[in-house]
Amino acid sequence: MNNPSEFHSVITGYPSAAQAALSRLRGLILNVADQANVHDLTETLKWGEPSFQCKSGSTLRIDWKPKYPDSVSLFVNCKTSLIDTIRERYPDALETVGSREVRLPLDQEWQADALDHLIRLTLTYHRVKHLPLLGA
Length: 136
Known about the structure:
Helix content is about 40%, strand content about 20%. It is an alpha+beta fold. The protein is globular.
């Protein structure tokens, strides 16, 4: 990880429930990256949002927005088939918005299998983008 302090500096102004959810989501991303043998994961800010980048994958961003105060979001590149693949594989598991966002409620458990799979596919996107349904 490059600079976890950037992550913390961004989320300190957020409500405590959003801070906790984003920290949990960050931990999940780091754990999935480790399990997927993604060793070059870097953490940075992209458009002011905590972002995760690696050579094998597509950029993954996370954030909380005042417009949707009861959730945090995970964003992927809208030019990929990541959200379509997750919708196909897990039709009712995650709230997807358009072709780039998954909205995660602050007051409910997240569907771990689907979320882990989305993170894994995003971090390994360049390895699987040629496969039907990204190999899902």
